């Protein structure tokens, strides 16, 4: 019915958002590749670098949600995703606790590139933002998401799901706009005559 269709659409939007959220910042991590790197190689490295880990986590999450053992259901009800993972690792004893700590630290590591991209994105807004050192914007971003995380820790899943749903809508428009500029206006014989890299920091052009 309609409820099922809405759930499928929402879940699809969340999956889409978790992938396409990288569309905005992927170039930040390709800029150090050699200038003569084949475009197809850049695409494949970027695509599979995102596809493999995200699909693995999505499949693992779906598998965990099919568990019907009461202990696992209670662990999820009491501790959300973290509680469920802790329950899954509990048979491993102290080693499972060690793995749980590594997983917690991996969240911090996963936020490092996001925070770095935040600094770059804010500086790209204009010259007044660019003259402020990047570490300042990174520090502001760190404070912002730390405060948000502390405040929303009891409703993490709901907040994350809603955020990814919103992100998927926004990135969909972003991707369309960038694709139109690249394939229509910035093509070699297009209205703008391709890319002039010397004009990247000239607002009038």
TrEMBL record:
<keyword id="KW-0472">Membrane</keyword>
<feature type="transmembrane region" description="Helical">
    <location>
        <begin position="43"/>
        <end position="64"/>
    </location>
</feature>
<dbReference type="GO" id="GO:0022857">
    <property type="term" value="F:transmembrane transporter activity"/>
</dbReference>
<keyword id="KW-1133">Transmembrane helix</keyword>
<dbReference type="Pfam" id="PF02133">
    <property type="entry name" value="Transp_cyt_pur"/>
</dbReference>
<feature type="transmembrane region" description="Helical">
    <location>
        <begin position="158"/>
        <end position="179"/>
    </location>
</feature>
<keyword id="KW-0813">Transport</keyword>
<dbReference type="InterPro" id="IPR001248">
    <property type="entry name" value="Pur-cyt_permease"/>
</dbReference>
<keyword id="KW-0812">Transmembrane</keyword>
<feature type="transmembrane region" description="Helical">
    <location>
        <begin position="95"/>
        <end position="113"/>
    </location>
</feature>
<feature type="transmembrane region" description="Helical">
    <location>
        <begin position="134"/>
        <end position="152"/>
    </location>
</feature>
<protein>
    <submittedName>
        <fullName>Uncharacterized protein</fullName>
    </submittedName>
</protein>
<comment type="similarity">
    <text>Belongs to the purine-cytosine permease (2.A.39) family.</text>
</comment>
<dbReference type="GO" id="GO:0005886">
    <property type="term" value="C:plasma membrane"/>
</dbReference>
<dbReference type="InterPro" id="IPR026030">
    <property type="entry name" value="Pur-cyt_permease_Fcy2/21/22"/>
</dbReference>
<dbReference type="GO" id="GO:0000329">
    <property type="term" value="C:fungal-type vacuole membrane"/>
</dbReference>
């Amino acid at each position: 019915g309609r409820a099922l269709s809405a759930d499928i659409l929402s879940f699809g939007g969340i999956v889409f958002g978790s992938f396409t959220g990288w569309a905005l910042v992927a170039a930040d991590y390709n800029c150090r590749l050699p200038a003569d790197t084949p475009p197809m190689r850049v695409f494949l490295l970027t695509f599979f670098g995102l596809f493999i880990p995200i699909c693995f986590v999505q499949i693992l999450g779906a598998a965990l949600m099919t568990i019907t053992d009461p202990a696992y259901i209670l662990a999820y009800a009491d501790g959300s995703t973290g509680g469920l993972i802790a329950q899954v690792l509990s048979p491993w004893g102290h080693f499972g606790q060690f793995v749980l700590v590594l997983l917690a630290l991996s969240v911090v590591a996963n936020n490092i590139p996001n925070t770095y991209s935040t600094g770059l994105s804010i500086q790209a807004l204009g010259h007044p933002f660019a003259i402020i050192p990047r570490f300042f914007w990174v520090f502001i971003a760190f404070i912002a998401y730390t405060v948000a995380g502390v405040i929303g820790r009891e409703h993490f899943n709901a907040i994350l799901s809603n955020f990814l749903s919103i992100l998927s809508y926004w990135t969909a428009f972003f991707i369309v706009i960038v694709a139109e500029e690249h394939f229509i206006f910035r093509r070699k014989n297009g209205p703008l005559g391709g890319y002039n890299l010397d004009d990247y920091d000239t607002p009038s052009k």
